[in-house]
Known about the structure:
The chain has 15 helices and 19 strands. It is an alpha+beta fold. Helix 8 packs antiparallel against helix 12 and helix 9 (266-276) packs across helix 11 (325-341). It starts with 12 loop residues before the first helix and ends in a 32-residue tail after the last helix.
Amino acid sequence: MSRQPSRKPESGYKVTIQKAMKALRRKLPGRVFLDKKSCFDASLDNLRLSFLPDAVVKVQTATEVGAVLKLAHKYTIPVTARGAGSSATGSTVPLHGGWVLDVSALADIKIDTVSRMVTVGAGAITSEIQDQVEAVGLFYPPDPSSKKYSTIGGNIACNAGGLRCVKYGVTRDYVLGLEGYYADGSPFKLGLALKKYVSGLNLRDLLIGSEGTLGVITSATLKLIPKPQKRWTGMFAFKSEAAALKTAVALFEAGLNPSILEFLDRQSVSCAERYTGNLIFDDCPRASILLIEVDGRPVEVREQRARLLEFMESRALAHREARTDAKAEALWQVRRTCSQSMFSIADTKLNEDVVVPIQKQAELIRYTIALKKEIGLATPTFGHAGDGNLHVHIMYNRSNPEDAVKAKVGIKKLMQKVVDLGGVITGEHGVGLAKAPFMELQHSKAEIAAMRAVKDALDPKGILNPGKIFEPFEVWDHKPVQVKLPWDHR
Ligand SMILES: Cc1cc2nc3c(=O)[nH]c(=O)nc-3n(C[C@H](O)[C@H](O)[C@H](O)COP(=O)(O)OP(=O)(O)OC[C@H]3O[C@@H](n4cnc5c(N)ncnc54)[C@H](O)[C@@H]3O)c2cc1C
């Protein structure tokens, strides 16, 4: 495992950090880890760039979070909050060293079936919250594909999306209250376990999606809804990406209401077919695909299925359907495989999560296909066609310097196109390090100045997750480490 040098500031830092470390170990004995493995594990996320922290603090209670921040604030030590470290953008990487504040042990889950709310520790795993609330007939819909690993604190800090957002919305739509600590260690309660709350400025929503730069969340109260009783999944093949994406738009015009609407372009499909050695549709290889789920009461699901099949008759080349969860899982396997299968094209990918208005998706895909020809690198794309959120990938071999330059040129052109189409550079992963170079494409100087002013007001010493969002970082100039993470299946 290779490491990258820490970028922490040098002058005076050594003396200060030594004093701070002494105070920290005295305050929280048994919680501070300096060994190589703990520091390496906390040095990276799914972007796989490693920057070592000075220490990892594994807190066991919310008040310990406050204690760590008080000391960090006093000594001006960078602090990076960490859940599961599954971030796709480098937002969890301790770029400037300092302390990684691991909150994964704060994992309580308390359900209120009457108010239909759940109060959870920031470290609770997303799928565990879902399993527990579903066991009592309730539903927490936001479902990032990383849900078996990601923590709710990480989901809130990134405003995570997922497959079911098209019908149910994103993490932000379910957060009622947040508790935690500001940068100086003083506690906050933003919102409460109440369905209505308009008192004062809405700082709760400011914290959501702030990537650990404005405060550290220790617990959250989430809204729940009744669990859908039934689901049905269908997979449809199309002759081209444009045909699939135009159908996605027409589907809403026809008044259909899918709970999931996923798209795969032909490059992604052919990667998945090569990877598994099986054709997805025997009769139409290398088709573009829409994967659709409808859910609700059995009568609604039956009605939506019948309307959808009729609607697709003249549009799709072929279809397969699943009425049971086990059969649906076999269809979903196609979607799950395509991300990993892309490594058959090249060893490195730039993985984007751009959003455009759903009517503009076909134009974006036409552009990614033209970009493939222009830069000579594959651009496989799949994603959430129901909300215009497409994962465009640019694949290249890191050992080939010419390819690396082409990838860099390609990504900049892609981001410009997205903004020109009225879209946004990131829809669910956040900015972190990877999207920081594109902030000025997306936002005016005045917007960025306002964001910085908020940051300065809540974190005057700039200790919370420094180096993220606002400082340009050329991700392609850094070498990812070779490491197997929990969600790597092969
Ligand atoms: C295989 C895979 C699939 C994925 N699929 C999706 C997807 O479908 N949709 C999606 O939105 N994302 C997806 N992601 C990205 C990632 O899983 C999400 O961003 C997730 O929300 C991160 O949660 P985490 O617990 O791993 O957070 P971490 O990676 O630990 O942290 C993420 C950010 O949140 C901050 N943070 C963490 N905890 C706190 C806290 N308690 N208080 C304040 N700040 C905090 C960190 O400092 C960091 O900036 C995927 C990632 C992988 C590896």
